[in-house]
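Mods, move this if it's the wrong board.
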Amino acid sequence: MRTLCASTLIGEFFVIGFAGLVAMKDPDLSMATVWTVSGIAMFLSVLLCGVITRPGGVALGWALQVALIAAGLVVPTMYFLGAIFAALWWASVHYGRKIDEAKARFAAQAEASAASAPDPA
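Not the wrong board. Structure tokens:
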């Protein structure tokens, strides 16, 4: 699960950065505000790559997805991109867990077959 979720989060890192560039064009927003918010979101996306397997990591990832969709209030394209990344996040978590379960099952089978194999000595 970690690899799939981290890949999604790194993709979000770049999308957040590009959304910040677009948001800079809004005359109602100061550059400091745009880059403070974008910088925090980019930092969180990278930080989540490291803590995704810890308790609450997936929930924090969902919070980031909600924030990306909410960024559509400032950059309307983010409604679409946020929804796409939320779907990717769901797929990463869902299929990542299935892959982890399959790996654990295969490891248990390999261990059981190695334990039951006759000693060649």
